[in-house]
């Protein structure tokens, strides 16, 4: 790095100066301009010092001796720099973390030459203080050393701001017609500020330091500029110095932009000539022109991905950013006047948050089980928040604190976005841009109705005027803003040519909307029809909120008059224990998703866990578990009394292809069923109704007990293929198989604790647990001396059973076990059911992930899930069958006496038994066009058909003559013909396929001595229009041509 010094017209000889100096940084033959602040007065006998920021640290340089020393260490991408000599403080910008920092310069710097001054330790990072946060990109800093203020330019937010040196009373000075502001300099004694703007239309401007727009003036225009960067002032000579990086030159001029010449020295000692009082953004100044009102008045809040901006609707100030921490992608915003909290949803952190307007008391109110938050709306009277989870396709409600979440709309949504509350009317409104619809319901989700569904495509923003019975929404596809009555009637277009409208809000007769692509913020006065731009070049705008931000006393009075606080039955909780939801028919006391209403209609109670016990005799019994881990005897009920005498509500879902199922688990999120078959040595999956059955694992496997973790998206099972036995795990699609832990012997039972994230197992002699990552294996001591066959864990309770009894104890105190169950029947398994253990969501939970067969919640190709198919089928990604499951071109069907099986000809795949009720099957044929499998029942001498999943089963063909005997058959699916052998007549016959799917006898093709096995060569018919039929005799084989399907029997065979 090389710093170039140039001579100026004067020399600074007085203290208390905060100015900038221009230098050239030359690296790798590239010329850039960096900003440096002078730190010393340079009087006779004193060293002339200069501060330099080089992104890693801040150094002081003695100009006359080229000696430097680090005074502020580890500054982390410091760019702009400023200094107040009188208080020994240096300021710089941290561009990586988007903030302005400050630190005290070690004492002694400036009082003596660097080579003679004591070597003080530079300021370390722990001594750095944050002055301003929530910035865009600050490229320029300047200090008013008289009134102790700091000015800066923000090229990303396109504005110029000012604040006290401690960051308080931050105010936006200029925001209109600001493109890419760069460097800034101030003249405190004359109240002037200068800045460079190197946007598309480069310029240098001047204005008063109080931001008075009347004083703003362009002093150097685009025609005379290239890339204006650094700027500084010669106070004594009243000259401005600036650098133009495009021509690699430094210029000077007077304060009016005239008399341009080569750079000169600077010097000066300012004296204040006057001042102007100003208030923070959004706060009015009182009539005395000296004091500010107590807080902001009417504000517009804009969610902008990385921050939330506050725009004053009372003052000409533009915006200020609310000092929030950790905002990643804010999408919606709302404000609670009563407590003064700002609420926003962040779809990257997957949370809903709140904070005071000064950034204090910030925390997340909802940050679990939230997948893609979108619109939010507050019910200020009932103290509830309604919010959209777009990915889960649901709308939920909770207290403003985030407690007591309840799902009120979970069906019929595709891409819900904005949501609005009519607290007094007791209704909820929302838009869905996936299906193009505006809907509403009661605040408890009942009485749902569609309001707008025609001539609307992408409804985004939504706002209500409850006093006048109107609603307003924007259509981003049709580029317009519309209005209608609250019931959807009297619809009309208010404004057109609104490109990609996103957020919409209403305040004092004005509609405000954000334009997502062009970064334009507009407002429209409904009564007069006047439309105007509020702000431009505001990138990444999402949703909006506009309203009054007043003191708590004003808030209560205004709120009561505006929405009828006193008449709302849900004020102050409405006497409900958890949620009070107002409706047009009166209040409704609602319960969170994990609770149920009590009998009095006001309180909510926690569901008690239910113990399910299955016996080897096919008896299934349930009983309620009490808080002391005992069983409520009166709640005991046999669901199934006898496996041979099933009640009508019991249904068999898997009827074939099973040998010995020893493990069974339900993925309650996706609606899939998993099981292990210890005789077939495989793990399979299907839908809960048994459809779309698929073999997941079948190699190197001897599985038994099985559990599924839907939220963790993992499958766990006991496997004895290896020595020693182990517990293994894999994803829900069978991929990523790995060992969890080795066991001493084969575990008889597994249980998952989703809260503590542990797996428990017993081998009959001991009980152990391990975390789901395979760490922290522990033995669970047990006070009862017996062999445990089964176990279940839930809510800090562990249950164990032998052949006839069940014991229960807290996991933390297993020595306090008590007997809770005894039975005459031999216990086969036990499970604990509870609502709280089955709360959650994933992408397969809604509409099966829009998959036609299986939805597997296993991450792949940057997706959290994918669609899969039954065994041997593959998913078509293009063509007419896109999205459907199709068989590969080569499969092998084979029949045994009472079954039909299938395997693939190529590749590694398991053979599977098809769920087809075949008996005495001999001949087989697969019609690739209809998907039917045809087979001959040799005892009944009839041909049957069915799909490979057992559906569409029925009779396909039977001979019409009693003396016929059907021995075998062959089919040509292309021509729809069936050739069958009659051994009673020694003939080969043909039948034609009817539209109903059955075959009708058409005639005899040929008589032979003893025909047995026919076969068709369908490709011949494609080539020459003739069928080629092959047949095996009892004594020899022949091949013959048949002229047509109904060719005469006299045709000779070769």
UniProtKB/TrEMBL annotation:
Q: What's a Gene Ontology MF term here? A: Wnt receptor activity
Q: Where are the LDL-receptor class B repeats?
A: 148-190, 191-237, 340-382, 383-425, 426-468, 469-510, 671-712, 713-756
Gene Ontology CC entries for this record: plasma membrane
What Pfam families does the annotation carry?
Answer: Ldl_recept_b
Spell out the InterPro entries in the cross-references: 6-blade_b-propeller_TolB-like, Cueball_EGF_LRP_Nidogen, EGF, Growth_fac_rcpt_cys_sf, LDLR_classB_rpt
Domain of life assignment: Eukaryota
Key words, A-Z: Disulfide bond, EGF-like domain, Glycoprotein, Lipoprotein, Receptor, Repeat, Signal
Q: Does the keyword Disulfide bond apply?
A: yes
Chain ranges of the EGF-like domain: 569-605, 843-886
- GO terms (BP aspect): canonical Wnt signaling pathway
Protein name (Swiss-Prot/TrEMBL): Low-density lipoprotein receptor-related protein 6-like
């Amino acid at each position: 790095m090389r710093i170039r010094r140039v001579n100026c017209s004067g020399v600074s000889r007085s203290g208390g100066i905060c100015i900038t100096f221009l230098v050239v940084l030359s690296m790798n033959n590239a010329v850039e301009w960096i900003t440096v602040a002078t730190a010393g007065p340079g009087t006779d006998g004193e060293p002339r010092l200069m501060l330099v920021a080089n992104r890693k640290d801040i150094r002081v340089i003695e100009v006359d001796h080229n000696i430097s020393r680090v005074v502020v260490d580890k500054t982390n991408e410091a760019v702009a720099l400023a200094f107040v000599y009188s208080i020994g403080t240096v300021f710089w910008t941290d561009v990586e973390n988007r903030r302005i920092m400050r630190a005290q310069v070690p004492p002694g710097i400036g009082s003596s030459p660097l080579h003679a001054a004591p070597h003080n330790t530079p300021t370390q990072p722990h001594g750095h203080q944050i002055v301003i946060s929530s910035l865009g990109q600050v490229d320029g800093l300047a200090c008013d050393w008289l009134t102790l203020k700091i000015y800066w330019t923000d090229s990303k937010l396109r504005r110029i701001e000012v604040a006290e040196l401690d960051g308080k009373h931050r105010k936006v000075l200029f925001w209109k017609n600001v493109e890419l502001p760069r460097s800034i300099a101030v003249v405190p004694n004359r109240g002037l500020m200068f800045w460079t703007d190197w946007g598309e239309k480069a310029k240098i401007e001047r204005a008063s330091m109080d931001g008075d727009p009347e004083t703003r003036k362009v002093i150097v225009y685009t025609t005379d500029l290239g890339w204006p960067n650094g700027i500084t002032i010669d106070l004594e000579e009243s000259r401005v110095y600036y650098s133009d990086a495009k021509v690699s030159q430094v210029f000077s001029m007077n304060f009016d932009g005239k008399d341009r010449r080569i750079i000169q020295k600077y010097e000066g000692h300012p004296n204040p000539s006057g001042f102007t009082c100003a208030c923070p953004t959004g706060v009015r100044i009182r009539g005395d022109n000296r004091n500010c009102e107590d807080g902001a008045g009417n504000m517009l809040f804009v969610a902008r991905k990385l921050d939330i901006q506050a725009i004053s609707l009372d003052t000409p100030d533009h915006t200020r950013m609310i000092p929030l921490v950790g905002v990643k992608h804010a999408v919606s915003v709302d404000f609670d006047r009563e407590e003064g909290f700002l609420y926003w949803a962040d779809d990257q952190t997957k949370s809903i948050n709140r904070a005071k307007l000064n950034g204090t008391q910030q925390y997340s109110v909802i940050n679990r089980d939230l997948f893609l938050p979108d619109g939010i709306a507050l019910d200020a009277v009932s103290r509830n928040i309604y919010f959209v989870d777009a990915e889960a396709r649901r709308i939920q409600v909770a207290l403003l604190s985030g407690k007591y979440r309840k799902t009120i709309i979970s069906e019929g949504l595709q891409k819900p976005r904005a949501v609005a509350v009519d607290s007094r009317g007791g209704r909820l409104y929302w838009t869905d841009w996936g299906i193009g619809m505006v809907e509403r319901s009661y605040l408890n989700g009942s009485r749902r109705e569609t309001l707008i569904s025609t001539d609307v495509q992408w409804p985004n923003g939504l706002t209500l005027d409850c006093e006048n019975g109107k609603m307003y929404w924007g259509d981003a596809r049709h580029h317009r803003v519309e209005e209608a009555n609250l019931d959807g009637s009297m619809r009309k277009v208010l404004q057109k040519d609104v490109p990609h409208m996103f957020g919409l809000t209403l305040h004092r007769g004005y509609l405000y909307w954000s334009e997502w692509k062009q970064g334009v913020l507009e407002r429209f006065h409904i009564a007069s029809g006047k439309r105007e731009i509020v702000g431009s070049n505001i990138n990444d705008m999402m949703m909006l909120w506009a309203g009054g931000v007043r003191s708590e006393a004003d808030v209560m009075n205004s709120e009561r008059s505006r929405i009828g606080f006193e008449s709302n039955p849900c004020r102050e909780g409405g006497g409900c224990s958890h949620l009070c939801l107002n409706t047009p028919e009166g209040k409704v006391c609602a319960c969170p998703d994990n609770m149920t209403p009590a009998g009095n209609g006001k309180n909510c109670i926690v569901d008690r866990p239910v113990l399910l016990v299955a016996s080897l005799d096919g008896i299934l019994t349930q009983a309620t578990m009490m808080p002391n881990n005992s069983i409520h005897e009166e709640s005991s009920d046999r669901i199934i009394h006898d496996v041979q005498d099933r009640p009508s509500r019991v249904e068999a879902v898997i009827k074939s292809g099973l040998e010995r199922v020893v493990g069974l688990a339900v993925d309650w999120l996706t609606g899939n069923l998993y099981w292990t078959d210890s005789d077939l040595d495989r793990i399979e999956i299907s839908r809960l109704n048994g459809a779309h059955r698929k073999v997941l694992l079948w190699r190197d496997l001897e599985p038994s007990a099985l559990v599924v973790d839907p939220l963790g998206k993992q499958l766990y099972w006991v496997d004895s293929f290896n020595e020693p036995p182990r517990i293994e795990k894999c994803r829900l699609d069978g991929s990523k198989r790995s060992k969890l832990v080795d066991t001493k012997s084969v575990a008889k039972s597994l249980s998952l604790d989703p809260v503590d994230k542990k797996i428990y197992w017993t081998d009959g002699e001991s009980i152990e647990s391990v975390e789901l990552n395979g760490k922290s294996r522990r033995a669970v001591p047990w006070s009862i001396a017996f062999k445990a066959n089964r176990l279940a864990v839930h809510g800090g309770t562990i249950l164990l059973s032998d052949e006839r009894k069940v014991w229960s104890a807290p996991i933390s105190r297993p020595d306090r076990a008590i007997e809770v169950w005894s039975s005459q029947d031999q216990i086969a398994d036990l499970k604990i059911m509870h609502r709280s253990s089955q709360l959650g969501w994933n992408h397969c939970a809604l509409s099966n992930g829009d998959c036609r067969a299986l939805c597997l919640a296993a991450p792949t190709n940057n997706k959290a899930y994918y669609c899969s198919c039954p065994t041997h089928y593959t998913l078509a990604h293009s063509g007419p069958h896109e999205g459907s499951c199709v068989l590969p071109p080569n499969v092998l069907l084979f029949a045994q006496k009472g079954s039909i099986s299938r395997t693939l000809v190529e590749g590694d795949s398991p053979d599977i038994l098809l769920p087809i009720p075949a008996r005495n099957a001999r001949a087989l044929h697969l019609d690739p066009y209809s998907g039917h499998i045809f087979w001959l029942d040799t005892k009944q001498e009839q041909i049957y058909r069915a799909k490979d999943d057992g559906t569409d089963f029925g009779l396909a063909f039977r001979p019409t003559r009693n003396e016929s005997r059907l021995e075998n058959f062959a089919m040509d699916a292309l021509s729809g013909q069936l050739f069958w052998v009659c051994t009673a007549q020694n003939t080969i016959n043909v039948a034609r396929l009817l539209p109903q799917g059955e075959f009708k006898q058409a005639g005899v093709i040929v008589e032979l001595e003893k025909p047995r096995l026919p076969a068709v060569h369908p490709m011949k018919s494609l080539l020459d229009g003739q069928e080629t039929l092959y047949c095996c005799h009892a004594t020899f084989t022949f091949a013959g041509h048949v002229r047509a399907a109904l060719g005469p029997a006299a045709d000779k065979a070769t």
